[in-house]
Design brief:
two-stranded parallel ribbon, 3-stranded antiparallel β-sheet, alpha+beta
């Protein structure tokens, strides 16, 4: 199992309603958020890993592509980055998920 590139927790700012809806499903999801200077940030990677582990996939079977889609403009499009920088378009990313036996 590989967790691919995604936005970093330092750049994934969310609103209070997102946080509230998210933790209403499970109070333990609070652990995937941080609070800095009256802002809320979501750790997408840690949430994905948590879900993989809940699916009983051993941690030793999880690999990572540690690339931040927000920070790496030359490698990835990012809607959040484009909006933050007032760019006209943000391009598109495509992920392909496969399963092999």
């Amino acid at each position: 199992m590989c967790v691919g590139p995604c936005i970093s927790k330092e750049k994934y700012e969310v609103k209070l309603d997102f946080y509230n809806k998210f933790i209403s499903n499970n109070k333990k999801y609070h652990d995937h958020f941080s609070f800095k200077r009256n802002k809320i940030f979501f750790d997408l990677r840690s949430f994905i890993i948590d879900q993989i582990l809940k699916a009983r996939i051993p941690k030793s079977n999880i690999s990572h592509i540690m690339k931040d889609t927000f920070a790496n403009k030359s490698l990835f499009f990012s809607h959040r980055r484009s909006v933050a920088k007032l760019e006209k378009d943000y391009g598109r990313n495509l992920s392909i998920i496969t399963k092999s036996d």
